[in-house]
Amino acid sequence: MADPAIRKRKTGKSSPSQKNEHLFTDSKRGKDGTTIKTVLAAVLVSAGVLLYMNYDTARSFVRTRLGKQSPGWDFEATRGGAVDFSADLPKRDAVVAAFKHAWLAYERDAMGDDEYHPIRKAGSNLTQAGGIGYTVVDSIDSMLLMGLEEEHARARKWVAEKMTFERDGNFNTFEVLLFTTIRVLGGLLSAYHLSGDHMYAERAQDLADRILPVFNTPTGLPLSMVNLKKREGIPDKDNHGLVSTAEVSTLQLEFKYLAMLADDDEYWRKAEKVMQVIKDARIATGLASIFLNPDDGKFAISPIRLGSRGDSYYEYLLKQYLQTNLTEPVYRDMYDDAMDAIHTHLMKTSEAEGLTYTAEILPERDQQGKIIWRVIPKQDHLVCFFGGSLMLGAVSTGTVGGTVSVPPRAEELTAQGKRDWLSGTELVRTCMATHNTATGLSPEIVHFRMAGDGIESKHDWYIKGARPGYAPYDARYILRPETVESLFIAFRLTGDPQYRAWGWDIFQAIEKHCRVESGGYASVLNVDELPVKYEDKMETFLMSETLKYLYLLFSDESVLPLNKYVFNTEAHPFPVFYPSLRTGFS
Ligand SMILES: *[C@@H]1O[C@H](CO)[C@@H](O)[C@H](O)[C@H]1NC(C)=O
Ligand SMILES: *[C@@H]1O[C@H](CO)[C@@H](O)[C@H](O)[C@H]1NC(C)=O
């Protein structure tokens, strides 16, 4: 399986499994008071959740295990003739034209810079030390998919000749490890897969080797920042040295695919070890707080949500199970556990319009200093990935026999499968409802009406913090992909043309309100105001995710089929493979 072009790493590969063993016993030992303290904290967290939410403790431990033995999943075998998946070429071409409008402006004004500002027609870098290819690498697999050969040739040349990770920068931007992994490492790996060009794989391995030292912590949880030149992990002082749950659990698809290509277990074990620590840190409800302590491997008392710093933890639980072709049941167990907990504690329905959404819960101290948990009816736009993810989970982990029709029939799904399918489709509907604004674009954060909240709103939801005549920063649309990502998955799993129609509505709203005539696309400051005011930034995920998912939505279903590919959280596709290693924990 290993790609001969990828070299074995020279660095002393001294028995990684022994090292892991050592780390594991260390972190379990509890040599000093800190461990005890945090155990107490974790107990408090769980007690708090249960007390506050007034749920039966026993119930939250019970997990239904229906359909546990399903042998793998497939839909092609049972696909009926009624569903029309043929490409919608005019709409697909319009998406390709939009991609070129974005790329050509970036290339003209900022080629090689990490970020792009289309109004002032200039780029910027994450650090003074110079760019590391964020935007270029993030865009390459979209070019390959869309057949943009000339653009790809120029981007490839830049990667081969100009890109370097010898950057002695203090990469202290928010979640830089996460973004470097999902954008640059993920982008290089999928570019390699789609093109077969070994240069991409070599650059990916160079980057991964520079990232590896971040895992050298007492528990193996990686630090949030990295100096790529010095090959050093740096703790995040802004968050008391804590690491975010989504960040540490959103590198496994990338490192495991690289491990497979390079036939090098070390990448695999480092990434897998994180999952073991998280599994051991489980709190009683099965929910995951957004921060972990890299010194003791425990959850820190912190908010619980499917939005920022939580989101891709849940996404990667499912996708790790899918990536290795359903051969690692531990991820299936963790995913089932998490979905049960989410449905018990976070899944809510709005009062009047019956919109399904996921709430957040925040820890607060009462007057005695005890932790209590407050439910906030707040949903980030980021959460809109979750509708499609639940539907994908339902047809892959929630089937009775392993195969499902398109769309799945009720008798093909287990009780959990039906539950997840239903809440997934409802969440997609809710995310579409939040596009019901002056621009047809959806804001960064919405709140939902609660009984007796005294809010005046046309709908069951409103932009967080909005008042008549005042638009908060959360009223922005920053070219985010999460809703169209779910629409793409929902279309592939149902063939329902409604999902294409919704995707086309969003695409047209982007064209109308975000497109900058001189080139590129900008963010919009208030989705509920016309004419729009721009924020001068074209996020790199426009080209890697938003336009890619729209392109796939209008392509026929042979392009990157969902039972043969997993998409990393930046929309870079990796092939499903059969692992040559056994999972190192259970
Ligand atoms: C970003 O970094 C690249 C590479 O070092 C450099 O050529 C470019 O000028 C930088 N851009 C800005 C806006 O500083
Ligand atoms: C995944 O498993 C199925 C059967 O369970 C098999 O048909 C398929 O070839 C496997 N795919 C890979 C990539 O190993």
TrEMBL record:
Which cysteines pair up through disulfides? They are C384-C431
Read off the InterPro entries from this record.
Answer: 6hp_glycosidase-like_sf, Glyco_hydro_47, Glycosyl_Hydrolase_47, Seven-hairpin_glycosidases
Q: Which cofactor does it need?
A: Ca(2+)
SUPFAM superfamilies from the xrefs?
Seven-hairpin glycosidases
The enzyme's first-digit EC class, named in words, is hydrolase
Active site (catalytic residues): E175 (proton donor), D311, E444 (proton donor), E482
Q: What is its EC number?
A: 3.2.1.-
Q: Which residues bind Ca(2+)?
A: T569
Q: Where are the transmembrane segments?
A: 38-55
Q: In which pathway does it act?
A: Protein modification; protein glycosylation
**From the Swiss-Prot or TrEMBL record, what is one GO molecular function term?**
mannosyl-oligosaccharide 1,2-alpha-mannosidase activity
Q: Which UniProt keywords apply?
A: Calcium, Disulfide bond, Glycosidase, Hydrolase, Membrane, Metal-binding, Transmembrane, Transmembrane helix
Which GO BP terms, alphabetically? carbohydrate metabolic process; ERAD pathway
Q: Which residues form a coiled coil?
A: none
Q: Which GO terms describe its cellular component?
A: endoplasmic reticulum; membrane
Q: Which Pfam families match?
A: Glyco_hydro_47 (PF01532)
Q: Show the catalytic activity.
A: N(4)-(alpha-D-Man-(1->2)-alpha-D-Man-(1->2)-alpha-D-Man-(1->3)-[alpha-D-Man-(1->2)-alpha-D-Man-(1->3)-[alpha-D-Man-(1->2)-alpha-D-Man-(1->6)]-alpha-D-Man-(1->6)]-beta-D-Man-(1->4)-beta-D-GlcNAc-(1->4)-beta-D-GlcNAc)-L-asparaginyl-[protein] (N-glucan mannose isomer 9A1,2,3B1,2,3) + 4 H2O = N(4)-(alpha-D-Man-(1->3)-[alpha-D-Man-(1->3)-[alpha-D-Man-(1->6)]-alpha-D-Man-(1->6)]-beta-D-Man-(1->4)-beta-D-GlcNAc-(1->4)-beta-D-GlcNAc)-L-asparaginyl-[protein] (N-glucan mannose isomer 5A1,2) + 4 beta-D-mannose; N(4)-(alpha-D-Man-(1->2)-alpha-D-Man-(1->2)-alpha-D-Man-(1->3)-[alpha-D-Man-(1->3)-[alpha-D-Man-(1->2)-alpha-D-Man-(1->6)]-alpha-D-Man-(1->6)]-beta-D-Man-(1->4)-beta-D-GlcNAc-(1->4)-beta-D-GlcNAc)-L-asparaginyl-[protein] (N-glucan mannose isomer 8A1,2,3B1,3) + 3 H2O = N(4)-(alpha-D-Man-(1->3)-[alpha-D-Man-(1->3)-[alpha-D-Man-(1->6)]-alpha-D-Man-(1->6)]-beta-D-Man-(1->4)-beta-D-GlcNAc-(1->4)-beta-D-GlcNAc)-L-asparaginyl-[protein] (N-glucan mannose isomer 5A1,2) + 3 beta-D-mannose
Region (Disordered) location = 1-29
Family, similarity comment: Belongs to the glycosyl hydrolase 47 family.
Q: Supply the name of the protein.
A: alpha-1,2-Mannosidase
